[in-house]
Amino acid sequence: MRREVHSQVVDPKSMPWIPVGPGEHVKPLHILKDGGARILLLRLNPGTLVPRHRHLGEVHTFHLSGHRKLLETGEVIRPGDYVFEPAGNVDSWVALEGEPVVVSIVAYGAMEYLDENDRVVRRDTSESLLETYLRYCAQHGLIPSDLSARPEETRDSVAESPDVSSGTAASAPPGVRTAARTWCDIE
Question: What region does 155 belong to: left with phi over 0, alpha with psi -120 to 50, or beta?
Fold first, then answer.
């Protein structure tokens, strides 16, 4: 039988911001099982510095709010700007004063933080983001959603139909709804 595939809607407003460093928070939206990509929202408080780092895969960012300055070029990124970072790109930036910076990110491959001698001091990957998310949920008594679920994994067949009144499908795994995905459901 042919499988029916549906979009998977995520409601970031219902998700907590997970602290990952001083003034730095993330909301992981999805982690691709194949290819090592991660899709997330990043929020930085004004004045927060993102230290020098290298991307091992390409990165696509869409700037949602606040202003940030790329330290290597002096360019100021504003809401509505799109930035493409090719694999191998090394940069650092700072969130400027005013409102927090919020950026939507699609990142492929690892990101390596570098010291002044270009030695790797920390490495972030899709797997480390997933570990951070699961640890945060465990520490706060939250039931984690499956961030790597594909839409076709949330429904079994064409014969199923969603319960329109509740927005859920009978076969959907915990934390996934046909109309929207929950982030961490409180037990």
Answer: beta
| 8-state DSSP, 132 | H
Query: Residue 88 above 60 pLDDT?
Result: yes
What's 17-129's CATH class? mainly beta
Which ranges of 4-147 does DSSP label H, i.e. alpha helix? 126-139
- pTM value is 0.77
Tokens for 119, please give them.
Answer: 């030695």
Buried b (16+ CB within 10 A) or exposed e, 136-171: bbeeeebebbebebebebbbeeeeeebeeeeeebee
pLDDT digits (tens, 9 = 90+) for 3-35: 777 787 878 888 889 999 999 999 999 998 666
Give, rounded to a whole angstrom, the gap between the first and last alpha carbons of the chain.
35
Sorted by where each begins, the domain ranges of the chain are 1-16+140-187, 17-129
